[in-house]
């Protein structure tokens, strides 16, 4: 009805509205207004910023009303069914986007997991198995392995597959952030998820099609890595569009557990078929992310304006109660940065100037290069465990392949706890770099314990993996979010929402280079024994710690300055 009152056939009299007699030429306009009013819910219409006309002329078309058409079909259905028409709409949509992006990135990680599980079947010890009637197991001890991985250099072949995948992922990440800024995020996310699912399925179809070409597996890994790189810039930018610079450390700490949840589900799902039909260990996760990509096209709301909501609050004091002012903490390299803020969340860059930034300009932002190098080594360690842990468990405990897959999920369960604990402690102390530094130091004895006592017994192995996941994966998750938090406070990014995708892509892309080289190095070093692998992982953790020493120093100096101020009061 509000739209009818605003139409040109109504004009305002002295004290009431008096209808004008509509002529024949605007009869179609009446019908269009009524149809448009049917599509716009009551609250959206009531919140319109248009003013009622006073002179009988047609008012300008509302921008909000045009933007309503940008909501996808699935959201239009939800608006009719369950979305509240009260002041809680903004909160409802934020929770909705948080849950959606969590599910999306869970499926991304779920589809990355199968290869690490299937490695134990592609090359295995065939002596306990009954050979076929016409085969001679004495001449071919790997008759049950899948060619070409039955060769003695299978470790190197697996390392090449991992390297091809993550190198393509890392390079794709740089371009994915650049493209995500300039395209519709809903379409970009759908395209990436469907492509990732397709090439995950193609890897599993090698068993059904009886493909034994190593080049085929390398090509599938390369294209799969490229499509997988679309995930992180997309989900982070979506969260940024809806939450602005709100700092909800615990909530975002839980949200960031999507990585470990996806790894756990991927290990469990792949482990179901690993012994009988390893191809389905790829096909089922591929179908899951492919179907989820179709749902993303129906239900993703890219920004609040699409559903007639205002942009989130991007200014204000984001410090924890009692935390020192940013004026107390100035650095030569980073400019003015509040390092005492809660860093255990996905901080976002304020929305205002929506001009995309170039990669060279993003690299000049203080802090991007330093944090990226740190993430390189942290992610190298984390993904070495992700890709090689089932094979290590199989070698030290002699358990079945499906049991090795389930045990490897214990490490990811520890990572969930570690990410949340690191976020809570960071919120309480305001010193994310120091928290990460302490966990990096604890990682060294944790790796030594796994190396020495990992094969002692299954209960001991479970305890060590749980603690190791907490200590090793916790800093990796916190570093990823802390980087965005520090960059979000930098003056050079104020008012630029589209910078988030590029900055995130550079940081995670550099970290993904570590994810490529770490497992590759582990595969090559493992030929000398698993002890050499653990020593190299310990060295990588210490190098990551060195990258944070300046930030740790500034956090301690700022904390001491605050203590002196409090003492002088």
UniProtKB/TrEMBL annotation:
Task: Please give the start and end residues of each transmembrane region.
Answer: 90-108, 157-176, 188-208, 214-236, 248-274, 280-301, 368-389, 409-426, 433-454, 460-479, 500-526, 532-553
Q: Where in the cell is it found?
A: Membrane
Tell me which residues make up the Major facilitator superfamily (MFS) profile domain.
Answer: 100-556
Membrane-related topology note:
Multi-pass membrane protein
Q: What is its main location?
A: membrane
- A GO MF term: transmembrane transporter activity
Claim: Transmembrane helix is one of the keywords in the record:
yes
Keywords (alphabetical) are: Membrane, Sugar transport, Transmembrane, Transmembrane helix, Transport
**Presence of keyword Transmembrane helix:** yes
Q: InterPro entries of this UniProt entry?
A: MFS, MFS_dom, MFS_trans_sf
An example Gene Ontology cellular component term from the record? membrane
Similarity comment text for this entry: Belongs to the major facilitator superfamily. Organophosphate:Pi antiporter (OPA) (TC 2.A.1.4) family.
What protein am I looking at?
Major facilitator superfamily (MFS) profile domain-containing protein
Residues covered by region (Disordered)? 44-68
User: What domain of life?
Assistant: Eukaryota
Q: Gene3D superfamilies annotated for this entry?
A: MFS general substrate transporter like domains (1.20.1250.20)
């Amino acid at each position: 009805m509000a739209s009818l009152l605003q139409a040109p056939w109504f004009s305002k009299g002295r004290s009431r509205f008096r209808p004008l007699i509509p002529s024949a030429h605007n009869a179609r306009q009446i019908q269009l207004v009524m149809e448009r009013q049917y599509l716009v819910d009551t609250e959206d219409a009531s919140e319109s910023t248009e003013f009622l006309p006073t002179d009988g002329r047609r008012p300008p078309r509302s921008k909000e009303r045009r933007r309503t058409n940008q909501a996808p079909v699935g959201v239009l259905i939800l608006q009719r069914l369950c979305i509240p028409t009260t002041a809680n709409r903004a909160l409802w949509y934020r929770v909705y986007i948080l849950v959606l992006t969590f599910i999306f990135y869970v499926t991304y990680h779920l589809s990355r997991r199968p290869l690490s599980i299937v490695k134990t079947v592609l090359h295995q010890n065939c002596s306990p198995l009954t050979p076929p009637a016409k085969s001679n197991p004495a001449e071919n001890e790997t008759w049950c392995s899948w060619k070409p991985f039955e060769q003695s250099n299978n470790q190197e072949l697996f390392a090449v597959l991992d390297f091809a995948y993550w190198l393509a992922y890392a390079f794709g990440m740089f371009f994915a952030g650049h493209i995500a800024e300039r395209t519709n995020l809903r379409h970009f996310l759908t395209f990436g998820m469907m492509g990732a699912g397709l090439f995950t399925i193609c890897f599993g179809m090698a068993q059904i099609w009886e493909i034994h070409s190593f080049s085929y597996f390398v090509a599938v890994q390369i294209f799969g890595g490229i499509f997988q790189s679309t995930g992180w810039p997309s989900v982070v930018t979506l969260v940024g569009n809806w939450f602005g610079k709100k700092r909800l450390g615990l909530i975002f700490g839980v949200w960031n557990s999507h990585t470990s949840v996806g790894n756990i589900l991927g290990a469990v799902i792949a482990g179901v078929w690993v012994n009988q039909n390893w191809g389905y260990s790829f096909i089922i996760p591929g179908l899951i992310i492919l179907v989820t990509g179709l749902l993303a096209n129906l239900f993703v709301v890219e920004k609040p304006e699409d559903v007639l909501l205002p942009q989130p609050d991007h200014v204000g004091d984001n410090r924890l109660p009692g935390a020192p002012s940013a004026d107390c903490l100035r650095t030569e390299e980073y400019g003015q940065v509040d390092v005492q803020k809660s860093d255990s969340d996905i901080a976002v860059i304020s929305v205002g100037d929506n001009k995309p930034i170039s990669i060279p300009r993003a690299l000049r932002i203080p802090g991007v290069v330093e944090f990226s190098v740190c993430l390189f080594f942290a992610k190298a360690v984390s993904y070495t465990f992700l890709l090689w842990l089932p094979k290590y468990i199989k070698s030290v405990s002699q358990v079945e392949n499906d049991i090795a897959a389930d045990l490897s999920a214990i490490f990811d369960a520890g990572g969930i706890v570690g990410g949340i604990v690191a976020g809570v402690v960071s919120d309480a102390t305001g010193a994310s770099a120091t928290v990460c530094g302490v966990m990096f130091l604890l990682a060294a004895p944790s790796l030594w314990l796994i190396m020495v006592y990992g094969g002692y017994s299954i209960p001991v192995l479970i305890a060590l993996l749980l603690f190791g996941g907490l200590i090793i994966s916790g800093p990796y998750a916190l570093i990823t979010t802390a980087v965005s938090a520090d960059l979000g406070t930098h003056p050079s990014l104020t008012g630029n929402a589209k910078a988030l995708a590029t900055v995130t892509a550079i940081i995670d892309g550099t970290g993904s280079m570590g994810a490529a080289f770490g497992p590759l190095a582990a595969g090559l070093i493992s030929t000398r024994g698993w002890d050499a692998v653990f020593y190299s992982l310990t060295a990588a953790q210490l190098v990551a710690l060195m990258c944070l020493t300046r930030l740790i120093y500034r956090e301690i100096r700022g904390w001491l300055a605050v203590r002196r101020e409090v003492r002088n009061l």
